[in-house]
Design brief:
heterodimer; A: 192 residues; mainly alpha; Rna Polymerase Sigma Factor, Chain: A; 2 domains; B: 182 residues; 0% strand; elongated
Chain lengths: 192, 182
């Protein structure tokens, strides 16, 4: 019920944007900025690139406001754009050119996450190794499996939405998720 | 209940169960099942472990100037000429281009077929500029050959006739010609 209400709210906001209401666009941005950036960050594993791609996503949303029709859920449409851009970026091989030092980013993440709890050096190192393994395991997944898992696990999209975002059938999504989780279970078993 | 893993949709159900997205009634049945099925229990535990591990990966916070940069880009785009804005919408559409591919392929095929229908009936001679040029040069070449060929045939015949006449002149009157002697 909450999801339906959210859908209606997003679609209504977008329809208002179509009528020229800039405040509605700001609200949409506020609601979806973090999910989109986080999804893209997990897809491309590069902070600067993920933000750049997220900017492009919202720019395209704004650009197509006049032709927007609420035929699908707004989040499905939004993640379809995001997935498309992320997959294109990965396929273009840009990640090799722009690859930041993952360890630097990782250390930042660790510091930020555990600063309040004052973890020991050992705890930080264990956490760092664990996250590094998770990132590697996710990165090693085929692109579509990766996108499906990230949308399913972190964004909470259902099969129908993921299939819309990936432009494939629901059964294909189930198959992608099944294979991806199976691979992750095997690859991350040693961390359990 | 049979082992869920043997069911066609079993793994999918177990994945939903771990994700907490299963109908409560069905989830209760799974609860009961995994208590007595070691195989399914093992899979559920492994899946839950993966699920929890993935929770550990938190992305960095979004830059504070994200919105400022975005609005600057939007403002910049507004200053572009209308044709350029339109072009951007076409070249970089919100909807993935992949979905357009079949339409683009069909349109391209249609154009090729149309062109072929326009060109082929006239024997690829007059309407196609390329064929037209090629045809003209071929014709010109043929014409040269035709013009020269009859001329050279005539020269050859004259020469033969002349040679025969010369032979007749050399033959003494009253004697047989070489051909008549044979």
């Amino acid at each position: 019920m909450e999801a339906v209400a959210a859908l209606e709210r997003d679609a209504q906001l977008m329809l208002r944007v179509r009528q020229g209401d800039e405040t509605s666009f700001a609200l949409l941005l506020e609601r979806h900025r973090a999910p989109v950036v986080n999804f893209l960050h997990r897809m491309v594993q590069n902070r600067a690139v993920s933000e750049e791609l997220a900017q492009e996503v919202f720019l395209r949303v704004y650009r197509s406001r006049e032709s927007y029709e609420p035929t699908a859920k707004f989040t499905t449409w939004l993640f379809r754009i995001a997935t498309h851009l992320a997959l294109n970026w990965i396929r273009d091989g840009k990640k090799e050119k722009n690859n930041e030092s993952l360890s630097e980013e990782l250390v930042e993440g660790v510091e930020r996450q555990v600063a309040d709890r004052q973890p020991s050096i050992e705890q930080s190192m264990i956490y760092e190794v664990k996250v590094r393994e998770i990132r590697k395991a996710i990165e090693a997944l085929p692109e579509k499996q990766r996108a499906a898992v990230l949308m399913h696990k972190y964004q909470g999209l259902d099969y129908s939405q993921i299939s819309g975002a990936l432009s494939c059938t629901e059964s294909a999504v189930k198959s992608l998720l099944f294979r991806a989780y199976e691979t992750l279970r095997l690859r991350l078993a040693h961390l359990a | 209940m049979d082992c869920i893993k043997n069911n066609k949709q079993g793994v999918e159900i177990l994945t939903d169960y771990c994700a907490g997205s299963l109908d409560p009634k069905v989830a209760l049945e799974i609860d009961t099942h995994i208590q007595r099925c070691a195989e399914c229990r093992e899979m559920v535990e492994a899946q839950r472990t993966v699920w929890e591990m993935l929770d550990a990966w938190t992305p960095p916070e979004v830059s504070q100037n994200f919105d400022t940069r975005l609005y600057a880009r939007i403002a910049e785009e507004r200053t572009l000429p209308v044709w350029r804005q339109w072009l951007d919408r076409v070249v970089r559409p919100a909807t993935p281009y992949q979905l357009w591919k079949p339409a683009v392929s069909l349109a391209a095929a249609g154009v090729v077929v149309t062109l072929a229908l326009l060109v082929l009936p006239d024997g690829m001679t007059d309407r196609s500029p390329f064929t037209h040029t090629a045809y003209k040069s071929t014709t010109a070449f043929k014409n040269t050959t035709v013009q020269s060929a009859p001329g050279s045939e005539e020269i050859d015949l004259d020469q033969v006739q002349q040679a025969l006449d010369d032979m007749d002149l050399l033959t003494p009157v009253g004697s047989q010609s070489p051909s008549s002697r044979l």
